Amino acid sequence: MQCKFCKFSSSSQVVLLKHCRLRHGTGAHWPCVHTDCVCVFKTLGALKSHLSRSHKTVRIQENSTFQCELCDFKEICSEKAFWNHLGRHIKQRETVPCPIRGCNFKTNTRSTFSSHRSRIHKNCTLRDFRSIARADTEDVGNDGEQSDGETGTALHNSVRPTEVEEFPEDVDSETLQHKLASLFLCMQTVLHVSRSSTQKIVEDLHNLLSFSNIHTLNSVKDILSKHNIEVNDSVLQEISNAIVQTNPLLLTTSEKGLLSTDYRRNSYFKENFCVIEPIEYLYNRDHKNAFVYVPVTKVLETLLGRADFLDQIVFDQESLSGHFKSFQDGKYYKDNKLLGQQNICISLALYIDDFEICNPLGTSRKLHKITAVYWVVLNLPAKYRSSLTSIQLALFGKSEDVKQHGYEKFLEPLIKDIQCLEQEGIFVEILGQFVKGAIFCVSADNLGAHSLAGFFESFNVEKFCRFCLISRDQIATTEVNDFQLRDIDEHDTFLEELS
Questions:
Q1: How many angstroms separate the first and last alpha carbons of the chain?
Q2: Residue 124: Cβ within 10 Å count
Q3: Angstrom distance (rounded) from CA 250 to CA 337
Q4: Rounded distance, CA 468 to CA 474, Å?
Q5: Do residues 352 and 452 touch, judged by C-beta distance below 8 A?
Q6: Residues 399, 401, 407, 409, CA torsion sign
Q7: What is the 8-class DSSP label of residue 2?
Q8: Separation between Cα atoms, residue 89 and residue 73, nearest integer Å
Q9: Are strands 426-428 and 345-356 parallel, antiparallel or unpaired?
Q10: 432, β-bridge pairs
Q11: Are 287 and 409 in contact (CB under 8 A)?
Q12: Rounded to whole angstroms, how far apart are CA atoms 293 and 396?
């Protein structure tokens, strides 16, 4: 490439730009350094921006033989094609080791694999691959001339492993439509955007895309005029209309699009996502009082079907004598006929609580008080158990109805599912076997625990404790060691007397 102000020439763009800046100063008009380009710029920065946009350099890899450690793949291909091949293994839920020499990282999660490459191996070359037989690479510009020196380093750094992951080669309209639907679902479930607000966003997004026709037309005109191409206005308008009308975002949010209304979005969510809808139950046929139940077995089956969730599950933990690391080291767990005897078993914890909603007069009014039952998988590490995403809803009903009809009716669908989980289990395809489970503990505050166990919910009574039989008069004069604890036999005796 030759300088257009003098006879200086160089095969490197960087060297040529340095020459122009030092020799000719910044006040001159800057023509493009490529001989086949007629563009001229007022500043050096504008020229650099033009070179990065319009004359991007590419990296050509020749005679690079990559060999996969998981299959019989051994072909002469580019580095990008080899990363894509490893990505296909991850899609099939296979654990893929990092192909870089000296790295022992393994994963079966696509996002984790991409993050590891971008953080640890972003500057690796072909020489760093342990699964490559021969690598002869050339860094060339788009005009076919070989680059050298400082340009070669810049060209190498321009090719990053994350580009393979973030910008796939084949992105069809259905994939974009699925990602857009995932965004709308995330807005409603994670970001708590109301349905009416989501509909407003969809309508405004459609209007903005529709109004972009004029801007698209002007952009097409500028590109064609830059390359000295003359086209009739009717042809330009037709090209602009085709670009706008074939936009998947515009099609899916149009009046008859798949994501244009709340009903259509919900239908798409049910067909393409793992949506488990709650089931409504009536306490009896004579009254319309109802409660809802989210099937625990279906939610658990969906969670165990995810490889990233199953990787975090700890079924059997090594325990040291005299040391307590988790609930699995306790006596109640080891004495449990199901949990303490099987190596692969799911432990569940329930939590019951009442809360008040939509009442500006305060919680004591109890007009809209709700009883809710939640559950969590105890086999997860503690840092995951405490996150809101790990806590699942099981039952949801008005507190008045629960007190009127009793917990037996309210907990009936949950108990049936737990019995099925204990006796039959859930088939986990990844493990290739049935996994059984049971409830290990039930947590609640004092009010919820007394209500569930059938004790007085008011603590201003004679026998106010659910653990012992101490009375209000005796508590001030009796030693703690002398408290008579409740046991199963006495509890059964009290129930017979009450009946």
A1: 101
A2: 16
A3: 58
A4: 12
A5: yes
A6: negative
A7: B
A8: 12
A9: unpaired
A10: none
A11: no
A12: 7
* Matching residue, tokens 């670009």: 243
| Integer Cα distance of 492 and 14 in angstroms | 89
Q: How many Cβ atoms are within 10 Å of 412's Cβ, its own excluded?
A: 15
Q: What is the pLDDT along the chain (499 residues), one digit of tens a residue?
A: 567 566 666 656 656 665 665 555 544 466 776 766 767 776 767 777 777 767 654 444 445 788 888 888 887 777 878 888 888 888 777 888 988 888 888 888 877 888 788 778 877 877 788 866 544 444 434 443 433 333 333 333 333 333 333 444 445 677 778 888 888 888 888 888 998 999 998 888 888 877 777 777 778 888 888 888 887 878 877 877 777 777 777 778 787 788 888 898 888 888 888 888 899 999 888 778 899 999 999 999 988 888 888 888 877 665 556 677 777 777 777 777 777 666 688 889 999 988 887 766 665 566 778 899 999 998 888 888 888 888 999 999 998 898 888 888 999 999 999 999 988 888 888 778 888 888 888 988 888 888 888 787 777 888 888 888 888 888 878 887 888 888 888 888 888 888 7
DSSP string, 468-485: B---TTTTTTS-GGG--B
DSSP 128: G
Cβ contact 178:253 at 8 Å: no
Domain ranges (residues) in the chain = 13-55, 60-166, 173-272, 290-456, 458-499
Distance between CA 135 and CA 78 in Å, rounded?
10
Cα angle: 453, vertex 459, 465; to 5 degrees: 55
- Tokens coding 164: 């393979």
Rounded to whole angstroms, how far apart are CA atoms 468 and 445?
17
Distance, CA of 471 to CA of 101 (rounded, Å): 72
Whether residue 128 contacts residue 101, with contact meaning beta carbons closer than 8 Å, is answered with yes
Full-model pTM? 0.57
Q: How far apart are CA 344 and CA 339, in angstroms?
A: 8
Alpha carbons 233 and 235: distance in angstroms, whole number: 5
Residue 316 has a CB neighbour count (10 Å cut-off) of 11
Please return the burial class of 378, using the count of CB atoms within 10 Å of its CB with bins 0-12, 13-18 and 19+.
buried
Task: Tell me phi and psi for residue 287, to 5 degrees.
Answer: -120, 155
How far apart (Å, rounded) are the C-alpha atoms in residues 304 and 429? Answer: 9
79 sits in which H/E element: helix 79-91
What is the rounded distance in angstroms from the CA atom of residue 145 to the CA atom of residue 5? 22
Question: What gap in Å lies between CA 450 and CA 464, rounded to an integer?
Answer: 9
